[in-house]
Design a protein that fits this description.
Elements lengths: L20 H8 L13 H22 L13 E5 L7 H6 L3 E6 L2 H14 L4 E4 L10 E7 L8 H10 L1 E12 L3 H12 L17 H10 L2 E12 L3 E5 L5 E8 L1
Parallel strand pairs: 1-2, 1-4, 2-3, 4-5
Antiparallel strand pairs: 5-8, 6-7, 6-8
Length: 253
């Protein structure tokens, strides 16, 4: 993997070393229309059902939950790292979890709090990086499409592992660093405006092997890896191919 350590424009809030200031600022500009399914986060809206399906499947299996329950995470704590304006945090709350969610962009947190209040959902939103939950532990930790935007991926994964309770479950997703992801996400999606320009730096994408090594070094074991594929006609779907994007589940070794 190319060196992803950033030495400038880092830690804009509270000395949180995982944050890259320009990344936080970029996503902060998207805050006001984050919940618009036709706005700048349209792709996330289309991707979210696939991610939720995977999270539910893995949580049901790991915690031996009732697959018929509407609130299977009742009695469990969840943390969403890099939550944006709450597209994942709100469904996790509706599944019954006590949810904390953090994001580097204060604009996102403000919109997330307003939207949750309007929806009648009590979610503990916090501004900052993974450092914002130092010393706390959660049964479920999610971190979707985030690691490619942080200052130091290795230290960031160690922070995620530190937030995981014994017996807990970590679920991450990120684009793979392949020719397909470069063409699909940079050339096509950003080039045509389907994703805001400047959202991704292909050189900072992380391969499954690289992420697996980071997780192992942080004391976690990979339990499942699944691809996310995209079709112009049918949209996103879970796939055996990891070439574009992938989800990965880990537990403490």
């Amino acid at each position: 993997m190319a060196d992803a350590t950033v030495t400038t424009e880092t830690a804009p809030a509270g000395g949180h070393a995982s944050i890259v200031a320009r990344e936080a600022a970029h996503f902060g500009t998207m805050a006001q229309d984050w919940w618009d399914p036709r706005g700048s986060s349209a792709m996330l809206h289309r991707l979210n059902p696939v991610r939720l399906r995977y999270i539910r499947e893995q949580a049901d299996r790991h915690f031996d939950l009732d697959p018929e329950s509407f609130t299977p995470l009742a009695g469990k704590t969840a943390l969403d790292v890099g939550c944006g304006a709450g597209l994942l945090a709100e469904p996790l709350k509706r599944l019954g979890a006590a949810v904390a969610a953090i994001d580097a962009a204060p604009e996102n947190i403000a919109v997330a709090r307003d939207h949750a209040a309007t929806s009648g959902l009590a979610i503990d939103y916090r501004e900052g990086g993974v450092e914002a939950v130092a010393g706390e532990r959660f049964n479920l930790v999610t971190c979707l499409e985030v690691i490619e935007h942080v200052a130091d991926p290795v230290a960031f994964v160690a922070g995620l592992a530190g937030a995981l309770a014994d017996g807990g479950l970590l679920i991450m997703s990120t684009p793979n660093r392949t020719p397909l992801s470069r063409v699909t996400m940079i050339t096509l999606a950003e080039g045509t405006g389907r994703i805001p320009r400047g959202t991704h730096d292909w050189n900072r994408f992380v391969t499954p092997d690289e992420l697996g090594t980071m997780l192992a070094d942080a004391g976690l074991s990979v339990r499942d890896t699944r691809g996310i594929a995209f079709s112009p006609t049918s949209g996103f779907s879970l796939s055996e191919s990891l070439a574009l994007n992938y989800l990965i589940t880990a537990t403490r070794s």
